[in-house]
């Protein structure tokens, strides 16, 4: 087992020298945790920074999280302006999680001037981004459409995004239904199903199943 780890270290170090930027992210993890090599946080940070500067999305996102002060607190000091810049670089390459963070920072004015119009634009872009969790940004979009932040209030869009977040959003959908007409609800469900079909991603509501109090769908 130890020999396998040593071989893995050598393989990734060689891959890194040959230009494989993802190997830099792997080596960051090894040197940070001491997996197969002597723990060295300075070397770990160098690999993380270098791979991020070369455009590796996971490294950019990890630096954003680190500078935000959520993890790796022993590696970098909290710096929300730096966090925003790293999230922005990853978001510009299509990373949904980073784009969601960019939108939150813009909305809250963390490390950057507050700008709700730009925050809404970034939340909206998460719909068609290729990387990260499929529904990242949808809860933010639902909140912005419901409160009219950076856009007009639109309960059809709110319901659509909550429907895409099923099953956890069942209480939110029930709350909205009290304010909507049957026609609005049908349109929201149509838009939700259209998005699911276009992206080949399906939630229980697509099949006509409804969330039950016991946590099942029937």
TrEMBL record:
InterPro entries linked to this entry: Sel1-like, Sel1_AlgK, TPR-like_helical_dom_sf
Pfam families, A to Z: Sel1
PANTHER family: SEL-1-LIKE PROTEIN, SEL1L ADAPTOR SUBUNIT OF ERAD E3 UBIQUITIN LIGASE
UniProt-recorded name of the protein: Sel1 repeat family protein
Organism from which the protein derives: Halomonas litopenaei
